Amino acid sequence: MSHDEHGHEKEPIILTSGRRLGKGLAIIVITLAVGAAIAVPFFHDFYKNPPPVTQQHKTTPPTTQPPAEAGTTTISILQGASTQGNPDFSSDEKPQVPLGNKIVWDNQDKTLHTATSGTGQDDPDKGKLFDTSYITGGQSADITLDKVKAGEVNYFCSVHPFMTGKMTIE
Q1: How many domains does one find in the chain?
Q2: Host H or E run for residue 74
Q3: Residues 45 and 74 in one domain
């Protein structure tokens, strides 16, 4: 190593030629182009068939439900629910909820969700019975059914309106 005028070692400077830099950039561009040529025609298939991790709950129902308190019903928003076609609410079997019960909405997904009463965005009565507002991934929100009468209640996620469910108030 060389030394400067004070006797300190100088860091070596590594230079490259414009030709060598051009070759490196060409390799990167070609690699990206080949990847895009493969991915773009099959994007619809990739989207339609998400990786197995998001399909995990299709064949096996979730087993991790938080323990329920007395007078509490827990409904989970399942992991991967934001992908249309995946299971969304653990309540697909239409739970029986006692009148006046507290409902805990447990968001097991990684994105924002809501639990809003109604059949969808176009329902003029949407949110009149309940609306949890946004529930961050890994968090929960609870509501008390004080405006609800016995019968069937529809609900959906206002962020992902394809996520729908029903519960029976008894």
Answers
A1: 2
A2: strand 72-77
A3: no
Q: Is residue 61 part of a domain?
A: no
Q: Say how many CA atoms lie within 13 Å of 160 toward its Cβ.
A: 21
> In angstroms, rounded to a whole number, what is the distance separating the alpha carbons of residues 54 and 111?
13
Kindly state the average pLDDT of the residues 105-111: 92
Q: Supply φ then ψ for residue 23, to 5 degrees.
A: -65, -45
pLDDT per position as a tens digit, 1-10: 566 676 677 7
**CA separation for the pair 27, 17 (Å, rounded):** 16
Phi, psi of 116 (to 5 degrees): -125, 130
pTM listed for this prediction: 0.58
- Domain assignment present for residue 65? The answer is no
* N- to C-terminal Cα separation, the chain: 84
CATH of the domain at 100: 2.60.40.420
